Amino acid sequence: MPATQIGTSERLLEELRGWVEHETPTTDPAAINGLMGKAEAELRAMGAVVERIPGTRGFGDHLVARTPGQGGVGQGRPVLVAGHLDTVWDHGALSYRVEGDKAFGPGIYDMKAGSFFAFHSVRELLRQKVATRAPITLLLTSDEEVGSPTSRALIEREAAGACAVLIPEPAGGVEKCCVTARKGTGRMVVKVKGRSAHSGGNWQEGASAVVTLARIITAIHGMVDLDGGTTTNCAPIWGGTRPNVIPNEAGCEVDIRVATAAKGEELVAAIQALAGPQPDGTEVFVTGGMNRPPMVETPAVLALYEQARAIAGRIGYDLPKQHRGGGSDGNFTAAMGIPTLDGLGGAGAGAHAEFEHILWRELAPRCATLCELLETLGD
């Protein structure tokens, strides 16, 4: 168990409820900043050295909180723990409720519980004046759910000087695993320009952007290689105006997932090669590329995992590991060569789904694991 007193799962759930009911869609920077401000005030009151980075490009603020050294203890490279406050849910889409062992609510699993773990652990370390082997840096961001466009540089800045990175994204699967590897992720946009015409009287004068898009989507779908860890998905899709008008515009977004950086470059190049004028008179335009590099399982990552698993075992539960297809901010830090352990957040299911929930009775033991890692990691 950590030296820090974490509290019971009931107590953690009571405070976490406030975080969940303070809804924070990525698209509402004011809402995110409100919750960010609450976290900032409490951390400052406990003595954290806090840096608030104003949001840009329509996104919310980011927060960096550092623990001060205590009598020579806690010197050296810090441990970075990083989470996001934004969620995929619009205001009012879901409501908080508890049914038995499950607590439901917008973003409670992805990743309000894990970000709260990080905040609560750092706050209580400071409140209780628990000495840590290394300084702790807590990073809370506001745009992870859309690829971290304004926080990536900050994440990489803080990771560059760290000895380890902990990402309390949700624990995965029925086994409640932490994550030692993730696929790289990319996002591309395909747009097709065609030529309008009456679909009855002048069909031959038109050039259907929708028909071309259908060919492109089929080609991109053909790039899937499940055994090699490569997937593509074309959605959403748009095009056309009326049934009796040959569509002059169409398009789609493309999600790509790859196991290696080399495969990511290859897949992006293959999709870009589909661009250009087409024989039927349409033209295809492709933008975008890789967003997050793969998080590769390395010996240093496995060593970090074994430390976490040993802590969980002493607390009283098993902590298996898994490789996951979804990306996180841990992809950025792992690609820098910084030992990164992910999936240290709440157990549950339903990320981005209407039944999103955590198993609330497991809040205390899982938060305790993260907290003990913060206490004991260091050079």
Automatic annotation (TrEMBL):
Q: Which UniProt keywords apply?
A: Hydrolase, Metal-binding, Zinc
Q: Which residues form the Peptidase M20 dimerisation domain?
A: 180-276
Needed co-factor(s): Zn(2+)
TM stretches of this protein: none
Query: Entry's Pfam families?
Result: M20_dimer (PF07687), Peptidase_M20 (PF01546)
**Which one of the record's GO molecular function terms can you name?**
metal ion binding
> Which Gene3D superfamilies does this chain map to?
3.30.70.360, Zn peptidases (3.40.630.10)
List of catalytic residues: D86, E144 (proton acceptor)
Write the protein's name.
Answer: M20 family metallopeptidase
Q: Which organism is it from?
A: Teichococcus oryzae
Cite the SUPFAM superfamilies for this sequence: Bacterial exopeptidase dimerisation domain (SSF55031), Zn-dependent exopeptidases (SSF53187)
